[in-house]
Amino acid sequence: MPDTPAALICAARGVPFNGANPAAWNLGIASTALGDWTTARHAWVAYGLDKFRAEAGPIDVDCGMAPVRLNPDQPSLPHQVLFSAGNTEVVWCWRRSPAHAVIASVPLPDSGHRCRDVVLHDGEPKGTRQLDGQDVSVFDELGRLEESGLPTWQAQVVGATANDFQELSDLLEQRGLGLDDWSGIRLMCSECSHGAQQDGHDHIPAASDDGKRLGLAGRESDLDEVIAPWLSGRHGIDVLNLDLLW
Ligand SMILES: [Zn+2]
């Protein structure tokens, strides 16, 4: 796939499309990159996605959750210039159209991305991850459309059960804040990440005796307003450190 919106538009417009034509998808990506929602709607309808026909204005449709590979390390096409703001990381996102998504996870700072950044992504599956027992496709990031500016924090929490963490996660999400269990992050090699599981590569997260390492996203006062009452109703839980990372 060409690497700039302009190149994408030229590639797409050089080919007449109707029905499920890859050029229609490329045009959808290119016009989403430019915020040209009218053209994006035409493109998705031309591809056969009729649900984008009805409304006008920016596309913001619940298209489910998908993993997106931030800063992808392998190009889709020769000569493609990859988008990179840091280290490669696969994060969960809320898809809001076929080509753009909001980051739901709390990315590691090394990725150069934050929770609730809006990213443009490719439509070609590049590996899979599990969601509720189902395989879902991973899509490569093509660029960042919006930076959320939501600060990223790290906390060490001891004495909390899985239920405690789930309740905290739900409370934070209701407030537009983020939580991720960074203890559970699997640092995979590129081959395994793209779906070609290598022999003897388990990539099991490192075990830890000192509780869980959480990634949190939000302003400090907003996080406090959720975490303080969550802590006060529970005995034996300690938040050992809450460090602003960036
Ligand atoms: Zn591996």
Describe the protein's topology.
Layout (H helix, E strand, L loop, with lengths): L4 H9 L8 H13 L2 H11 L17 E6 L18 E7 L4 E4 L14 E4 L6 E4 L2 E4 L1 E8 L5 E7 L3 H13 L3 E4 L8 H4 L18 E6 L2 H13 L5 E7 L2
Parallel strand pairs: 1-7
Antiparallel strand pairs: 1-2, 2-3, 3-4, 4-7, 5-6, 8-10, 8-11, 9-10
Helix pairs in contact: 1-2, 2-3, 4-6
Bound molecules: zinc ion.
Zinc ion (ZN) binds next to helix 5.
Summarize the structure.
It comes from Pseudarthrobacter humi. With 246 residues, the chain is of the alpha+beta class.
Characterization of this structure:
It is built from 6 helices and 11 strands. The model is unreliable at 1-19 (pLDDT under 50). It has 246 residues and is α+β, with helices and mostly antiparallel strands. The strands form 3 sheets. A 5-stranded mixed β-barrel has the order 1-2-3-4-7. Strands 9-10-8-11 form a 4-stranded antiparallel β-sheet, covered by helices on one side. The chain has 3 domains: 1-55, no CATH class; 60-149, no CATH class; 152-244, Alpha-Beta Plaits (2-Layer Sandwich), CATH 3.30.70. Bound molecules: zinc ion (ZN). Zinc ion binds next to helix 5. This is Tetratricopeptide repeat protein. It comes from Pseudarthrobacter humi.
